[in-house]
Structure formats: structure tokens, C-alpha cells
Write a structure and sequence with these properties.
By secondary structure, the protein is mainly α. 56% of the residues lie in helices and 7% in strands. The protein is built from 14 helices and five strands.
């Protein structure tokens, strides 16, 4: 079976965009791949976090993996910082990465808003941590959004360079961009993506939102001028709402447009809220029923399974680079 790796950063409450862009696809991947799904907490540290809130978010996200139906019997579920091999391989890869390669990363340029001088080194180096995540597990495919394509290119380049200079060590992974609904936009500003760290919580449907919050957010959602309810790229706000409707109902675009041909925005927003509440109810019930002990068992077992693979790859990388004194000594005894 081909191996797949994907993660979610605990930078804020998990939302509908994360579900549609990641978790929903993960459920499908469980049938076709050997999966490694992780909470990317080391990545969250590239932006300042409140330690107490971060510790809670890590658990919340892992719990949500289980609540949406990711099966720990089928997939390895773990927290990134529980597996120290991620940090160690990052250092080894840092030593084969060129400054120029990281300086070309457009996401760093976008995110270092306060200017290079004040940006954290972690933010600059984060594509190398991502490369370590992927290469540690000898991953074949990595589902990514458009914005991560450049980082995947770097991951491939680093694997190819390391293999060429030090001998075959890493599998060279392929990016995979999922189709429909790849990018949900904010409900309050259709030119911005729905995001965990958005300052405006009204734009984001959180998977743990209470019914009244969901109703309120859809009611206040921005729409475009005109009254027609159609999928139309020149009317991004209404199209975004219809994409959500499509994902909740599994209807075709034609069926949806016919249904709303005699109805207005208020009706669309009411129906969206109702469907969303109905969809989230069992997810929230499952979320609330998972005990701390159950969650810890899943994460401990996931960590152990992840480390079997990660330590093997890291050991091989260290051997190739010649930094393996202890391993050599214990072998000769
Ligand atoms: N709006 C979105 N539409 C579709 N997919 C989305 N994803 C995120 N936002 C949307 C997908 O969710 C997965 C996990 O994302 P992440 O945690 O690694 O970071 P992100 O993409 O940066 O997500 P956020 O919510 O926007 O976080 P912040 O605010 O911290 O930057 C990924 O597969 C992503 O594509």
C-alpha cells in the first residue's frame, strides 16, 4: 500500500475549511493508503502561541480526528512533538538546505509581515520541518493545497540531493491536490480563505460551534450583488455558500441551482444552517464522548507506531552522514 502523510496545525479552533480540505479526504484515504495523520504542533510554534491554549488545542484537534471517523486501527494518529525524530531530522536537513532556497519561499514572504528582521527563524525554516515530516515516513503522497506546492518541491529537491550526495535514504514523495471544494472562503470576506487564526470569528464555522452560533454566522454571511443563486466564479460569496451546500447535501450543481431558482438568500442561509447543525450534531456527540484516557491511549500507540518508522529513517540518515557513534559502538559490542 502506498504511504500518505497529512497534518493539521493546532493554531486555532478546527473549522469547516479544515474538514473539507483535509479531514473529509482523510476518511477516503483510509481505504486506499497506509496513513500517518498528525497534529502539527511544532509548526504551530512558528507563530506565537499561548502555551496553555496550545496544549488544549493539540488534544482538541486529535480528538476531532477521531470524532469525524478517522480510525486508529487503520491509520497512525500522533502528535508531532511526541516524535523527537522530526526535530532531529530537521537539523540534518537544514545542513543540506541552501539559504537561497528558503528565501524564495513565497509563504515566508507573505507571513513575515512585520519584516524579515523581526520574523522568527522557525517561520523561515518551517519548510525544512515540513520536509522532515514527509521524508521521515518514506511517504509516497502528500495531499496539499495550492499554497503548499512550493514547499513540496523543496521537499523533493532535498530528498533527491541527499540521496545523490550521501546514498539512497529517502523516498521522493509526490504532491496530491484534491479536487472539489479545495478552498473554502471566509463567510465574512469571500476574498480571504476560512482560517483558524482569522481575527474575525464570524467568517469561520468551527466544528464545535453551537447551533445558535452556526445560525448567526450563516445569517450574517456576506453575499454578492444581484439575487440569483447560481455557481458563478464572478460572485465568490454566493458561490462559496453554494459549495458548502453542495458538500453538505451531495447534490449536483444543477439540482442545487434548480432548487434555489424560486428561493432567495434568506432561504439558502436557513437551509445551510439547518444542514450544518444536523451534520455537526453526531460529530460533536462523538467528540464529547471520547474520554481523556481513550485519547491518550490512541496518541501513545500512534506515537509508538510512528517512531518505529521514523527512528529507522533517522538512523539511516545519521549513518549516511557519519553521525552515529553510539549506534556503531553498541553494534561492535
Ligand atoms: N479554507 C480552507 N479551505 C479548504 N481547506 C483548508 N485547509 C485550511 N483552511 C482551508 C486545509 O486544512 C488542512 C490543515 O491546515 P493547517 O492546519 O495545516 O493550516 P492552514 O492551511 O494554514 O489552515 P488554517 O486554518 O488557515 O490555519 P492558520 O490560520 O493557522 O494558517 C490543510 O490540508 C489545509 O489545506
Amino acid at each position: 500500500m502506498r504511504r500518505l502523510l497529512s497534518g493539521v496545525k493546532p493554531t486555532g479552533p478546527i473549522h469547516l475549511g479544515n474538514y473539507i480540505g483535509a479531514l473529509r479526504n482523510w476518511l477516503q484515504f483510509q481505504l486506499d493508503y497506509e496513513n500517518f495523520f498528525f497534529v502539527a504542533d511544532l509548526h504551530a510554534l512558528t507563530v506565537r502561541q499561548d502555551p496553555k491554549v496550545l496544549a488544549e488545542r493539540i488534544r482538541e484537534i486529535a480528538r476531532m480526528f477521531l470524532a469525524v471517523g478517522i480510525d486508529p486501527q487503520k491509520s497512525v494518529i500522533f502528535v508531532q512533538s511526541d516524535v523527537p525524530e522530526h526535530s532531529e531530522l530537521t537539523w540534518l536537513l537544514n545542513c543540506v538546505t541552501r539559504m537561497g532556497e528558503l528565501e524564495r519561499m513565497t509563504q515566508f514572504k507573505d507571513k513575515a509581515r512585520e519584516g524579515r528582521e523581526r520574523a522568527g527563524v522557525g517561520l523561515f525554516d518551517y519548510p525544512v520541518l515540513m520536509a522532515a515530516d514527509v521524508l521521515l515516513y518514506q511517504t509516497d503522497v502528500v495531499p496539499v493545497g495550492e499554497d503548499q506546492k512550493q514547499h513540496m518541491e523543496l521537499t523533493r529537491d532535498l530528498a533527491i540531493r541527499f540521496n545523490r550526495d550521501y546514498g539512497e535514504t529517502f523516498r521522493v514523495p509526490e504532491p496530491f491536490i484534491p479536487e472539489v471544494g479545495a478552498r473554502l472562503m471566509s463567510l465574512s470576506n469571500a476574498s480571504k480563505k476560512m482560517s483558524k487564526s482569522d481575527d474575525d470569528p464570524q467568517g469561520c464555522i468551527e466544528l464545535l460551534d453551537a447551533p445558535d452560533a452556526i445560525t448567526r454566522k450563516f445569517k450574517r454571511a456576506v453575499t454578492d450583488s444581484g439575487t440569483e443563486i447560481r455557481f458563478d466564479p464572478s460572485r465568490p460569496a454566493i458561490t462559496n455558500l453554494l459549495v458548502i451546500y453542495q458538500l453538505l447535501t451531495n447534490q449536483t450543481r444543477e439540482e442545487i441551482e434548480t432548487h434555489f431558482s424560486t428561493r432567495g438568500y434568506a432561504q439558502l442561509k436557513n437551509e445551510l444552517a439547518e444542514r450544518m447543525i444536523e451534520f455537526l450534531k453526531p460529530v460533536q456527540e462523538r467528540f464529547n464522548s471520547i474520554t481523556d484516557a481513550e485519547l491518550d491511549t490512541v496518541l501513545d500507540e500512534g506515537c509508538a507506531r510512528a517512531r518505529v518508522v521514523a527512528s529507522q529513517t533517522l538512523g539511516e540518515a545519521r549513518r549516511r552522514l557519519g553521525v552515529e557513534r553510539k549506534a556503531m559502538r553498541s553494534m561492535s559490542q
